[in-house]
Design goal:
It contains 11 helices and 17 strands. The protein is an alpha/beta fold. Bound molecules: ligand LLP.
Length: 386
């Protein structure tokens, strides 16, 4: 089921465009489904990747579902705490953690630092020692596992900046065990985002088993497992598939990840939780007849939703105001960049000035990546279907 148009109609009355419209009912159903599918194993723990959407209202709904939080900055940790995520369920990842962020995270009593380098481990030890605290640490592993997704959002290959090479994990654990203010608690992975091919996650499980085997043979502790996020959504058919395939995702991990007794498995899902519930609503400013094509110039732009411009990502676009026969348009924003395009050769019901245009599946990495370029104000948000 899709966000019904009548809810959108209620939402936009009196609202300046462009704005984000969030279907709270769909968000709640998605949370319930994800948690139910994850309960296939009692040691699967879900965290929400705050970077996907940190709108305070969205965060507090997710916090009250009982999920933990995955953060990549001090600002995200502060947002998670404000929303009510318990500090011990907050994990802190990122290749470039600043000293003040590390201090803040330690002071807040977060549950885990996902450490991405030997150099970072040293700095955390030094800061924790200065504060008289013990830092709970997992190592982010670079597993050299590819993912079938957009190049800009692949993270698990050796050439990517993330994590410690998987061959050096025993050395990293030994280093951690020798430090007085580090508690080693496990391994962390994240191979990429918008992944729809479950065999990619299966390959990660195989790599984990290989690393775990080496650690066992060397008598080193394994700790728990954090497999990151990455589950994709159906951008092409948001009405038919308004929820990610949580069954296959958790089923793949349940079948392929060989857990040792007592091991917890953590997940950090972003897009699959909030992607489908958000829609960017804009209005047509001009229908411009170009040399070889017609442009629907809308008031939304890459400053509200940068995914199409940045990754050539495709999202479904609809004219909500017209019931005339479709025509073909390039749907573009007003920003002074040729890349400010939502879609080329899009079939849209005939557009007129003032029509409302919806860009579906914009709940993840939409509002959270908005910018003030061209002095555009940040987009407001409305909540429907509570
Ligand atoms: N964990 C870590 C360590 C991550 O880096 C990410 C996302 C996640 C979890 C959540 O992944 P998800 O379940 O949302 O796929 N801006 C891009 C996506 C960047 C993803 C960055 N990392 C986009 O708009 O497609």
């Amino acid at each position: 089921m899709d966000t019904p148009t009548q809810f959108l109609v209620e939402a936009w009355s009196g609202q300046r465009t462009p704005f984000y419209c969030y279907d709270v009912g769909l968000l709640r159903r998605t949370l319930a489904r994800a948690l139910r599918c994850a309960s296939v194993r009692d040691r699967f723990k879900l965290h929400y990747a705050i970077k996907a959407n940190f709108n305070p209202r969205i965060l507090s709904i997710i916090a009250s579902s009982g999920m933990g939080a995955d953060c990549v900055s001090g600002g995200e940790i502060a947002a998670a705490l404000r929303a009510g995520f318990p500090p011990e369920d907050i994990f802190f990842a990122g290749v470039g953690k600043r000293d003040d962020e590390i201090e803040f995270a330690l002071r807040s009593g977060i549950g885990r630092f996902n450490v991405e380098s030997f150099e970072e481990l040293e700095v955390i030890e030094e800061i924790a020692s200065g504060m008289g605290l013990i830092a709970p640490v997992s190592f982010r592993v670079n597993p050299d596992v590819g993912a079938h997704t957009l190049a800009g959002i692949t993270t698990g290959l050796a050439e990517n900046k993330f994590g410690i090479e998987w061959e050096r994990i025993p050395e990293a654990i030994r280093a951690a065990l020798n430090l007085g203010h580090i508690q080693f608690l496990g391994l962390h992975f994240h191979i990429g985002s918008q992944i729809l091919d479950m065999t990619d996650f299966g390959t990660l499980c195989t790599r984990y088993d290989q690393i775990a085997g080496t650690l066992e043979s060397e008598g080193l502790p394994l700790g728990d497992i954090n497999v990151g996020g990455g589950l994709g959504i159906d951008y092409a058919h948001p009405c038919e598939h308004p929820m990610a395939d949580f069954e296959s995702y958790f089923g793949t991990y349940a079948a392929s990840l060989r857990c040792r007794p007592g091991q917890m498995v953590h997940f950090e899902l972003g897009r699959s939780i909030v992607g489908p519930c958000g829609t960017l609503i804009s209005r047509v400013l001009y229908v411009k007849r170009g040399h070889s094509r017609d442009f629907a110039i809308i008031d939304g732009s890459m400053t509200e939703l940068i995914r199409p411009a940045l990754y050539h990502a495709k999202q479904q676009i609809e004219n909500l105001s017209s019931d005339e026969a479709p025509l073909t348009y390039d749907v573009v924003g007003p920003v002074c960049e040729s890349s400010d395009v939502f879609g080329k050769d899009v079939r849209l019901r005939r557009c007129h000035r003032g029509d409302f245009i919806a860009v579906r599946s914009s709940g993840a990495y939409g509002e959270s990546m908005a910018s003030g370029y061209n002095c555009h104000p940040l987009p407001p948000s409305v909540f429907i279907n509570e």
